[in-house]
């Protein structure tokens, strides 16, 4: 049976909060849906918490070892029966009426729209993306690049047409999803609604965007090689469009390639990207280069502590 939505929830060691996310999905009305929870190698009983619900709308899929959030999403999407895939993280909560409102928006979206996105509210009262565009946006590829370039916080809730994944998939590596969304935007239009569909909580200790420095440094070192390769792949595909429409994105991904090669201990590969950072690299680039010459660990330690010190006082504002 075809469903309106497949709700995709990847989770790693979220036994204490996964019920919040799943319960918020099960409380939805006005749309047909399934909930696909992918336990990505958890060691704290996350899968067992979900299985104990005993709800036939919920399926638990397991990775024997941790493979990363994007690979977990791919596992769920391969099993999805919904016409649309709503990408809910384990620290999200669907707001009342979210799927019913999304169904209305998805039903009126033009056929070439791949992502019907909506705004997020956070547990500290912030809303994203920031700045607020103030109106519904329907963007082609150049428009999407310009929109992303001007954001200070690029967090929104993604609801993707199932056919998108026949042409574009999340990376199966430990790289994150920025490149995936650029590839989607190149092939499909992007619709951003003004409605708020999810609430994001910041109470998890293993958040990707803000973890304690030792944990963050280990993650950077683990993910660096995959992140460097993904940044290079993005530049190979989008650099010409970046130069034409969003030059700051060109700098962003060149800096990501440079930094992650240093974190991976690949100094020569990192140096290849210095010309893209301009004739006079900024102070941050010079600091990264100096620390990277000492080795990946000093660079990871310094970057993790800098991020923690900058964002910790504002909790979820990262």
Structure, explained:
This protein folds into 2 domains: 3-200, Alpha-Beta Complex (Spore Coat Polysaccharide Biosynthesis Protein SpsA, Chain A), CATH 3.90.550.10; 213-317, no CATH class. Helix content is 43%, strand content 19%. It has helices at residues 18-26, 46-51, 69-77, 98-108, 141-149, 178-187, 213-245, 247-263, 267-271, 283-294, 296-311; strands at residues 3-11, 33-40, 58-63, 82-87, 92-94, 113-122, 127-128, 137-139, 159-161, 189-200. Mean pLDDT is 92; it is low at 313-318.
Number of strand elements: 10
Gyration radius, in Å: 20 Å
CATH topology of the largest domain: Spore Coat Polysaccharide Biosynthesis Protein SpsA, Chain A
Report the CATH superfamily of the largest domain: Spore Coat Polysaccharide Biosynthesis Protein SpsA, Chain A
Summarize the main sheet: 5 strands, mixed
Overall pLDDT confidence: 92
> How helix-rich are the residues, as a percent range?
40-55%
Order of helices and strands: EHEHEHEEHEEEHEHEHHHHH
Which structural class matches the secondary elements?
alpha/beta
Distance between the termini: 40 Å
Residue windows where pLDDT falls under 50 for at least 5 positions = 313-318
| Silhouette | globular
Strands of the biggest beta sheet: in what spatial order? 3-2-1-4-9
SS summary, helix count: 11
CATH architecture of the largest domain: Alpha-Beta Complex
């Amino acid at each position: 049976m075809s469903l309106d939505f497949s709700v995709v929830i990847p989770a790693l060691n979220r036994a204490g909060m996964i019920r919040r996310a799943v319960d918020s999905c099960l409380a939805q009305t006005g749309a047909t849906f399934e909930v696909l929870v992918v336990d990505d190698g958890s060691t704290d009983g996350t899968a067992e918490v979900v299985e104990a619900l005993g709800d036939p709308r919920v399926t638990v899929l397991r990775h024997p070892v941790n493979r990363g959030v994007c690979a977990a999403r791919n596992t769920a999407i391969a099993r999805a029966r919904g016409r649309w895939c709503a990408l809910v993280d384990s620290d999200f909560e669907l707001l009342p009426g979210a799927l019913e409102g999304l169904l209305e928006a998805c039903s009126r979206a033009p056929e070439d729209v791949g992502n019907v996105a909506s705004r997020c509210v956070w547990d500290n009262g912030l809303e994203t993306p920031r700045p607020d565009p103030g109106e519904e946006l329907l963007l082609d590829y150049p428009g999407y690049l310009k929109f992303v370039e001007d954001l200070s916080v690029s967090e929104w809730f993604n609801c993707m047409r199932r056919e998108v994944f026949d042409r574009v998939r999340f990376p199966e590596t430990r790289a994150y999803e920025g490149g995936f969304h650029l590839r989607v935007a190149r092939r499909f239009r992007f619709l951003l609604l003004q409605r708020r569909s999810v609430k994001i909580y910041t109470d998890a200790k293993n958040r990707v965007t803000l973890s304690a420095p030792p944990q963050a440094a280990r993650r950077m070192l683990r993910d660096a090689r995959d992140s460097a390769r993904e940044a290079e792949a993005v530049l190979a595909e989008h650099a010409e469009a970046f130069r034409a429409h969003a030059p700051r994105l060109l700098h962003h991904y060149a800096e990501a390639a440079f930094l992650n090669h240093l974190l991976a201990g690949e100094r020569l590969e990192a140096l290849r990207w210095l010309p893209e950072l301009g004739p006079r690299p900024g102070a941050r680039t010079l600091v990264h280069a100096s620390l990277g010459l000492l080795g990946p660990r000093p660079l990871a330690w310094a970057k993790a502590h800098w991020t923690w010190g900058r964002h910790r006082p504002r909790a979820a504002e990262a």
